[in-house]
């Protein structure tokens, strides 16, 4: 799928507008506000970093596999919910300052929506380990339990009429192979 | 519960060799080891009777006639079900005997398997 | 004669429906009560007769080719018992909601919602065809949604309601699978037809299992049940303990003859039930929210019912447990509702304690309900739970599953004792000057009625139900006492642990408790992992590749650009020079000529 995306992206770049895939949702933006093409040379890299107000060491665009966002920087996924509420933000509701580069999905990471950087009491990996461990342990033990069944020291229940051959939906025209007979124990 | 746990232990660790398999239970000839042939278990109710009385499938066993008697008594004395405690007891006793019969079958199978085991080991020693 | 009684029963229900539209809310409660009495009479008439089931109405609604959709009501033992239990419990809960919701401005609407739910539930249990079952099923689902989000201004309640309806939709897929498969393959939706055909189909049965798991909150689809506790307490009491959540088990009971013919599905349902009963019991152990403990114990008991339907193959016992469970669990919820209301909406058990002096009658009812839930001998729960444990013990079943059921049973006692210790017993830890008062007729009355029924219902039902399977008559004493024994052990352990953990000098925060307190991390992980996976896939393939890739290139967004390029070329060619046109003409003619020669 990435290959298809890359093909489409390359096609767009080569013979359409020479722009990256970031098109439709920002159609209203002017050309200067659009992210530029993926930076190839170190100079372009530095220029892109400067454009977004970042240091070159911090700047890292999305990989250019056809589904990237041009030179837009790949920022850490932080929801507004987990930002410090006591900081004097320029925008207190969205908890961001003027000139901050927003995450490319920042519309999904507002305070009413999802928070990808949620802090849990128990670490995430530990939680998964606990749940998978619980279910997996029980699953394995149920498998072994199926091998070693709970054994009650009685014979299977005996039923008359060939073990209820007809009642259990047997074919009346075709008699069962051998007739099952049950015997009493002698009275002592 | 303790009895069952110890039995389970025996079935899988202590006496693995001669614990019967409930899936293929009567593996010996029914008359093997008896002085005279055993009598066949008597089924009193017929298939048609049971079908007419709509006896549940699990209860169409050798006590079905007593179950049917109980149910008929219930129907006749419906609001006063204490009137049927005699029939209820009869059926319960029959089911109890059936359970004991199942236990006996199990024990017979177990002892025969043990005996077979013993015989085999004796033959091995003679050789 | 029998038909007459059936018609009377349906008429009483019809009158109940009419009273649903009355302006006076208590008259609806009265009508529910009298409908309950009428149906109790019907039940005894049915038991007296020789019939095991009756079909009413038999009205042909739609006729499509060879298929005809019949509307009829199936009145068998299960339906009649459930009618009586459901109407009795609903009547009490309606009276209780007059107390609990008395300050709510829309209490009339609330009672109408409860009534609509009741009608949907009765449709569900008396359904004769899968289609009617679907109507009742979706009816209870939507009423559950509306009632959980009753306090719609609270975002928690909204979230819980959405969770409930989403998880229920997953289960409904199973029901739709059943409907479609049976219509396409068998051309019949009626239960009579499905029973008579005696088919065994994995696809259909997986639908049954999925539907039951969704509605009855089995492991995997369970998080909505504890979340649904955000709704008002009468809702939790009616929908999420006694009636709606058992609809899944009821479906399994209806289809148990088919399930028991399929070994793999039977095993699957058995494992699902045992794992649910253990998981929910573990989660209930460390909850501090009073209603959540009761909710998890409900889920645990539902797991026990599912276990016994499939594992031991005794659907009648499961049904008995449904009836018993309805009485005492509805009462437990009402008691906790009374406590919560008296303590000004305080649900945290750590802030309760010593309520036996503040609210003695509620406390006694709470104790009776917990004892019945634990299976203390000769209360209602004992008569269903003890045979369940016994029948699981005397069958050659999966040994680990048997152990899990026993552990879960002991946990039942553990969390019940813990809850009792925290709320009713001990020293009072509530805020001072709480106007704790239980002198309301609409609180005490329903509680007492349900308490009496929790005591005697077991005897009555055992007395009237004719057994469908062999009762265990010759157990060794130790095995006979197994259920009581594990209950006792669980209770003692709970007592010990509570004393250990909640003294002043003790360590109260044990990290190992996080698994129990955070309900096994299941909702946290699943509610994050699955949406995240789908979100990433959506971003990758739908947004970047399709919307911003190929749509830009060739599809609507790209068409404009492509046409613009072509149009630009055409415009560029329009130079008004005759030589240019002639050149183009010659070129085209040469091309056509060349093609013709080549061909």
Automatic annotation (TrEMBL), chain A:
Residues 168-188 are annotated as: Disordered. One of its GO terms (cellular component) is mitochondrion. Pfam families: NDUF_B8 (PF05821). PANTHER family: NADH DEHYDROGENASE [UBIQUINONE] 1 BETA SUBCOMPLEX SUBUNIT 8, MITOCHONDRIAL (PTHR12840:SF1), NADH-UBIQUINONE OXIDOREDUCTASE ASHI SUBUNIT (PTHR12840). It comes from the Eukaryota. This is NADH dehydrogenase [ubiquinone] 1 beta subcomplex subunit 8, mitochondrial-like. InterPro entries: NDUFB8. The lineage of its organism: Eukaryota, Metazoa, Chordata, Cephalochordata, Leptocardii. The keyword Cytoplasm does not apply. The chain crosses the membrane at residues 127-145.
Automatic annotation (TrEMBL), chain B:
It comes from the Eukaryota. Keywords: Disulfide bond, Electron transport, Membrane, Mitochondrion, Mitochondrion inner membrane, Respiratory chain, Transport. GO terms for cellular component: mitochondrial inner membrane; mitochondrial intermembrane space; respiratory chain complex I. Belongs to the complex I NDUFB7 subunit family. InterPro entries: NDUB7. This is NADH dehydrogenase [ubiquinone] 1 beta subcomplex subunit 7. It is a peripheral membrane protein. Accessory subunit of the mitochondrial membrane respiratory chain NADH dehydrogenase (Complex I), that is believed not to be involved in catalysis. Complex I functions in the transfer of electrons from NADH to the respiratory chain. The immediate electron acceptor for the enzyme is believed to be ubiquinone. It comes from Branchiostoma floridae (Florida lancelet). The keyword Nucleus does not apply. It is found in: Mitochondrion inner membrane; Mitochondrion intermembrane space. The gene is LOC118432216.
């Amino acid at each position: 799928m990435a290959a298809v995306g890359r093909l489409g992206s390359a096609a767009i770049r080569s013979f359409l507008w020479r722009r990256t895939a970031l098109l439709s949702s920002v159609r209203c933006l002017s050309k200067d506000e659009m992210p530029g093409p993926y930076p190839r040379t170190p100079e372009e890299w530095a220029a892109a970093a400067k454009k977004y107000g970042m240091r070159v060491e911090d700047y890292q665009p999305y990989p250019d596999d056809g589904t990237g966002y041009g030179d837009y920087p790949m920022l850490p996924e932080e929801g507004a919910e987990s930002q410090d509420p006591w900081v004097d933000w320029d925008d207190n509701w969205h908890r961001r300052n003027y000139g901050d580069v927003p995450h490319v999905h920042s519309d999904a990471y507002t305070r009413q929506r999802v928070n990808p950087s949620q802090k849990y009491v128990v670490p995430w990996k530990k939680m998964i380990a606990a749940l998978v461990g619980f279910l997996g342990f029980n699953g394995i033990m149920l498998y072994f339990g199926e091998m070693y069944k709970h054994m009650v020291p009685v014979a299977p229940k005996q039923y008359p009429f060939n073990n209820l051959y007809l009642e259990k939906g047997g074919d009346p025209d075709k008699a069962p192979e051998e007739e099952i007979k049950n015997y009493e124990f002698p009275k002592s | 519960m303790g009895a069952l746990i110890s039995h389970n232990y025996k079935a899988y660790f202590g006496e693995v060799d001669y614990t019967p398999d409930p899936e293929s239970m009567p593996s010996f000839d029914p008359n093997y080891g008896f002085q005279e042939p055993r009598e066949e278990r008597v089924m009193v109710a017929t298939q048609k009777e049971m079908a007419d009385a709509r006896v549940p499938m699990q209860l169409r066993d050798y006590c079905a006639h007593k179950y049917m008697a109980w149910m008929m008594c219930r129907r006749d004395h419906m609001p006063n079900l204490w009137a049927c405690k005699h029939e209820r007891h009869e059926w319960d006793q029959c089911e109890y005997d059936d359970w004991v019969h199942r236990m006996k079958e199990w024990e017979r199978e177990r002892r025969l398997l043990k005996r077979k085991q013993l015989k085999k080991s004796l033959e091995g020693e003679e050789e | 004669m029998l038909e007459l009684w059936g018609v009377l029963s349906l008429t009483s229900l019809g009158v109940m429906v009419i009273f649903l539209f009355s302006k006076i809310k208590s008259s609806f409660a009265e009508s529910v009560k009298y409908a309950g009495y009428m149906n109790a009479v019907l039940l005894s008439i049915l038991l007296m007769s020789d019939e095991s089931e009756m079909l009413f109405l038999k009205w042909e609604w739609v006729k499509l080719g060879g298929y005809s959709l019949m509307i009829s009501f199936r009145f068998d033992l299960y339906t009649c018992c459930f009618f009586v239990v459901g109407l009795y419990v609903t009547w009490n809960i309606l009276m209780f909601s007059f107390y609990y919701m008395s300050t709510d401005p829309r209490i009339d609407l609330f009672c109408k919602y409860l009534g609509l739910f009741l009608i949907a539930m009765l449709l569900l249990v008396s359904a004769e065809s899968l289609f009617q079952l679907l109507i009742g099923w979706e009816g209870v689902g939507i009423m559950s949604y509306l009632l959980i989000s009753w306090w719609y201004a609270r975002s928690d309640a909204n979230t819980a309601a959405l969770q409930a309806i989403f998880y229920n939709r997953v289960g409904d897929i199973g029901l739709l699978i059943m409907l479609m498969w049976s219509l396409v393959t068998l051309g019949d939706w009626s239960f009579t037809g499905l029973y008579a055909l005696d088919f065994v189909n994995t696809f259909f049965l997986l639908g049954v299992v999925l539907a039951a798991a969704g509605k009855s909150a089995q492991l995997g689809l369970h998080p909505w049940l504890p979340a649904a506790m955000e709704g008002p307490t009468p809702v939790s009491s009616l929908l999420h303990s006694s009636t709606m959540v058992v609809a899944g088990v009821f479906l399994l009971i209806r289809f148990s003859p088919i399930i028991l013919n399929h070994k793999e599905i039977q095993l699957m349902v058995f494992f699902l039930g045992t794992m649910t009963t253990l998981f929910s019991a573990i989660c209930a152990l460390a909850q501090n929210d009073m209603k959540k403990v009761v909710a998890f114990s409900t889920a645990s008991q539902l797991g026990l019912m599912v276990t016994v339907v499939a594992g031991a193959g005794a659907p009648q016992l499961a049904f008995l447990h449904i009836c018993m469970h309805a009485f005492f669990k509805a009462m437990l919820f009402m008691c906790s509702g009374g406590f919560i209301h008296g303590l000004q909406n305080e649900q945290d058990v750590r802030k309760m304690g010593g309520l036996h002096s503040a609210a003695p009658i509620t406390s006694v009812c709470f104790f009776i309900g917990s004892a019945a839930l634990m299976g203390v001998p000769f209360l209602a729960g004992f008569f269903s739970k003890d045979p369940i444990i016994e029948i699981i013990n005397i069958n050659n079943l999966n040994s680990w599953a048997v152990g899990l059921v026993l552990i879960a049973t002991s946990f039942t006692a553990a969390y019940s004792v813990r809850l009792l210790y925290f709320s009713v017993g001990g020293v009072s830890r509530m805020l001072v000057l709480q106007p704790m008062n239980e002198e309301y007729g609409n609180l005490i009355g329903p509680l007492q009625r349900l308490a009496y029924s929790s005591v005697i219902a077991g005897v009555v039902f055992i007395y009237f139900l004719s057994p469908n399977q062999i009762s265990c008559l010759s157990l060794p004493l130790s095995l006979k006492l197994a259920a009581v024994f594990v209950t006792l052990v669980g209770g003692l352990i709970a007592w010990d642990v509570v004393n250990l953990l909640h003294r002043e000098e003790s360590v109260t925060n044990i990290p190992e408790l996080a698994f129990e307190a955070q309900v096994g991390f299941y909702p946290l992980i699943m509610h994050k992992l699955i949406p995240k996976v789908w979100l990433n896939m959506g971003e990758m393939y739908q947004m970047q590749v399709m919307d911003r890739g190929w749509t830009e290139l060739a599809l609507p967004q790209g068409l404009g650009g492509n046409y613009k390029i072509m149009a630009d070329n055409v415009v560029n060619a329009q130079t008004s020079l005759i030589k240019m046109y002639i050149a183009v003409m010659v070129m085209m003619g040469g091309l056509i000529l060349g093609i013709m020669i080549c061909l």
